[in-house]
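Good morning,

Both structures are done.
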Amino acid sequence: MRKLMWFTIGYGISCAVGVYLLRDTRLLMLAAVLGVLSLLGLHFRRHPVGKRVLAVFLGGILGCLAFFWYAQTVLMPAAVKDGEEVSVVIRATGYSWETEYGVAADGEIELSGRRYKVRFYVNEDRRIEPGDLVRMQARLRLTDEGGEQEPTFHRTRGILLLAYPRGEVILEELTPELRDLPARWAERLKGIIEEAFPSDAAPFAKALLLGDKSDLLWSQSRDFSRSGISHIVAVSGLHVSILFAFFSMVTGKRRFWMVLLGIPVLILFGAMAGFTASVTRAVIMQIIFLLALALNREYDPPTALAAAGLAMLLECPLVIAGIGFQLSFASVAGIFLFYEKLSNWLGNWLPGKGKTLRGRLERFFKSSVAVTLSATVLTVPLTAIHFGLVSLVGVVTNLLVLPVVSLTFYGVMAVCAVGCIHMGAASVLARVMAWPIRYVLTVAHTMAKLPLAAVYTISPYIVLWLVFVYGLLGWLLLTKKKRPGAAAGLGALALCVSLMLSFLEPLTCAYRVTVLDVGQGQSILLQSQGSTFLVDCGGDRGEEAADIAADHLLSQGITRLDGLILTHYDRDHAGGVPFLAERIEIERVYLPMTEDTDGCLQGVLDAVPEQIPIDSELTISFGDAQIQIFPAKDAGSGNDSCASVLFQRGKCDTLITGDLSADAEQQLLADYALPDLELLIVGHHGSKYSTCVELLDATAPDAAVISVGADNGYGHPAREVLERLEAAGCAIFRTDLHGTIIYRG
């Protein structure tokens, strides 16, 4: 009956409820309700379904109690420390890296008798290594601003606190302990890979073997996402299975040696990969397989999956909100649920019988397609929610690269092994292994460039298509007369209709103002009757902002911009232009007459041949709308050296002020007659020095949008700005909270 599986499902649901819905004593109330339902359901305990329901209820009860205990004993004490300045001793658990806020590293501290994971920042030139002690007066902050139980990137990894230095920092190098060695060995292997492999192949080799994606180009990451093979650079079950297959071959599948050596090797590999959610799940499941082998017991994959999930939730309930955890468990669950059905269905066309070449190719193709499709059944909704896209070419791309990925994994292992003995020989081998890496990168890039490689959930029609597809899937599972071919045809037809509607919708809309979620930056689309202008294109990383803008345009079938307007040349407003021009044709660019402080102007000039200076007020008519561009009054390099943009269509008026300060806003009011606004793009990402009361009183905006990055280091949006907007009666929208925001009419 797989009691553990049903118990874990209930436990996980309660943890998810604790993370996303309920807080504090309401969890106890939920546990009480489940307890009552369990007592009422004891009457059906002899029925198979009744047993499963009781197991789910029992797991739910214990999950509620465990999460409540975790919140009371771990989360709330951490919240009490928020804002405190304390003297701390931090033991580093990993290597440091450079950030815009200084050198960062992860470590452990002891506060009030409890050990916490912490991310700390120091202003030190020396690199921090695992096992080092850091003594400092530190200001502690929670890893999120939204409350002590909100799931963030850090929290799903157990990191609850951030530590910032307040005074002298003392570093002590200690002899590394046993637990520090895997991280040090992993760093050694990264050094061998960087030295041995050519520069274009080394980042992928590090990501493939150890999950270190820090050196991958943003464009490469987007290629992996669009082509549906992101999992190959996230150490997961695929990599553990490849490693285990190699280990099984080396031991000759001798049970004793597989168990004796396999478990330590798996634990070591997981530790070197940082015990991410996906690799932890895979390692636990593989260890359970080895234990079943040692005890001569039957191995049940769903039970092993449940055991892995339960172990991870017991260690940190917040892990259930992690993207890696969700994708890893969803993909494996999908294989368990759908692989056999898909394999049997494909077997009607590809029997794969016999030992001939054709039979072997048919079996390989059938198995690969069935595994890929079954793994994606449950992961597609998650990728749509978390990343806003669904790859349509993932099956084909996986077929093309997975055999090569396995070979490459072994090759990178061999390079590292040889490199520990002789770097010259390792370099020769690495040059050979660079070719399959280049093949994978080329295939990913080629597939990602296809016009319909991926569809984007920013379109409501694509969301409806997904709902329709999963409705068809439910119908297939419930109906007795299976017609998968007909369902696939209906799904394809629905996709065509959804794409057509996505492409036509901007043409039928009177106007659209789209504030793209580019992090700490700004990029705004203005559309009317088939014409499209973009105001600014920049963010934390210019290439990322460009990709976000390009993906949004391509999701509507738009491959050309009528014009690009820049308010100024700061990187968070103009840094993405050269990258955008590589994917989208830009007819012309409008350039303010201000200084180029961040060195972005030359890239813009090289990317867009036709340039129009903003040296006086300009009016651009397109469709039945118009754009007024107000030149910068200050030709210097400060925030006041910004052009402003007024978009008007009928009774819809939208004002974009770039990074203008309050003084410059008042000058703008004095020089030009601004109308009442329906939409205000808040200046300077919500800085307290912008969006003055006079501007709000004069324009009376109905709604205000703040383009701002989550957890930015500038304190944007400022509390003063939010208060001024509320006092003016504005509806407030923020890209860090609401994602991309569309205002249409």
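Second structure follows.
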Amino acid sequence: MQTIQLYIGNIEVDLFEDESISLTNTIQDIKDIAKVFTSFSQTFVVPASKVNNKLFKHYYNFDIVNGFDGRLKVNSTIELNYLQFEKGKVKLEGVEMRNNEVYGYKITFFGDTVQLKDLIGEDTLDALVGDSNWIDGFAKPYNNAAIYTGLVSGYDITNDSVNYPKAIITPLITHTTRLFYDSASDTANDGNLAPNGNGESAAMNHGVYWKDLKYAIRVDLIIKAIEKTYGITFSTDFFNSSNAPYYNLYMWMHRKKGNVEDPNSPATFPQLVNFGLDSTMTNVLVTGETITVINQTGNNKITSDLTINVNSAENTVYTVNVIRDGVIQDSFAATAPSAAQSTIDLTDGVYQVQIVVREEFTIDSISWDLQDLIVPESHTFNVGAFTIPATTQFVPSAQLPPQKVLEFLTGIFKLFNLTAFVLDNGTIKVQTIDSFYANPSSGSPFDISSNIDVSKSQVNVALPYREIIFQYKGLGTKLAMQHEQLTTGGVGWGTTEFMGDAKYDGGVYKVEAPFEHMKFERLIDAANNNVKTVQVGWMVNDNDEPYLGDPVLFYPIYQQNQDSIRFLNDRPYVNTASNIDINDYFIPSNSVAISAATSTANINYNQENNEFDFTGQFTGTLFQTYYSTYITEMFNTKRRLTRFSAYIPTNILLNYTLADRFIVNNISYKINSLNTNLKTGLSTIELLNEV
């Protein structure tokens, strides 16, 4: 008989003598191959002993001050015979009462990998700001010059003293205007990329307009932002810069359909006023942009008079907000060059003054007079002239698609058939399922033949499906929809179906990645049918209307010294500086490279014709690279899922990993799942025979 020890923090919890604690361990259940981050949880009851009452601070008594907080999970460890078995967390679910007396505490033990789900919760990608707002260190101005730089070279950005190459780029993906190439046409105000003519005329006003473009960010930086926001660490087995199919992947920062902002409603430019550090008032603390008022509750108030003096050359509407603890307390608008004035009483809180305009704006001075009538004392904060620049910042946390963080992570796992588990040091080890099974522990294989209960076992079909469909959730862009409409059987772009023997029973299973899968278009010169080195994306629906869709993932291909295209700084045409002809630019692709000689890797599940060279030679599909071995093995007619009962020795329970093999009667098995009653030591094991 094994002994079980449960620790919450450093305190050993008393257990019922007959308490049955069973834990199920599985890395990727063959019955649900799309599951990721799978581990275990177990709910059970512990007695209301003196030790446990003290630990849970008599939770049933709600009159106790500073009692146990049942909303929080606390660190916990399970030991077998005083040797560590599993680490995780415990959450108090409630208290079981009998005859008005406390009987026990209902608790749930969570494995570490399950904790990842709970930690992230329902957060969306715009929550990836963390304590240091790390991801927004990759913000760039959203203007013609900055978009141009992102297009022709991309941005190497240093954040927290680390340089990240090509962190932000501008791909040739447009949100509204379709790009094309016609060297014989010079129609104004269209998406013709061909550089035609040399004269200064309105006819030159064609090409890709900078406001039709948005930035993209390297997916690896989103992974790093998740680590920094939630205090977790992923291993570098798969998430590393040498792994091109992963590291070269980008997400287009497309949060709303169409323009980043409505051109008819210019963006606003808010700026907080910096008041410096000087203050002679007892109850007022000043730190740069904040003024903190203390000890002014009740009838104690500081009166204030705020005056904004605007430069005489200004003639636009502006708004002044007085903010207390993040909430606007007073807001007033004025039309420059008139001064804006406000009188407001200040109670305890942190105050800021914010000025909001829609264009570059110059202020001559600001004065904020504060008077404490109780002390009594006063002070006037004077701020000299400054200009608010008319530059919109393209901030990643504000521009990433509104996708849940967990959905993004599971989507990446579904693309590359990854699995995850937590190492003893807390690192979440991430690797492909093939790599996982190829790396058993040093103690593998474990021969458990003598531990099997031979009186009863069960042999089942390994994979309960006759067909598995691999696809993307988002196939709503115009070219992707056209592909499906023109394909025999209406198969979606990048979709593949793996079929077993059709005569067999079984359901249809879908592995669906929660991303938009765009079909890109290589341009051909309409004037002479010459194929160009330009490939573009067009984010519109079947009616040519701007389309939001799901988050777009792609590979950027840097075309250097290739066919010239026209970039528009202004529309309508102003002068020759409005247009720039360039031959360096990033084109979007579903393949790591545009040459199969360089790489055949791509993010199609199916072997599709490569959009750039129109051939089917790019064979390194997601299915072929990351799923084929695993799925083919499961569909093997010799494969079985066998269920055994066994008393697994403690030394094996403490040392095995799910990558290990068990030997039963000279047959080698992979471990699909293992459920162990820690009290009795009896395990129910699902094993897959190797073929």
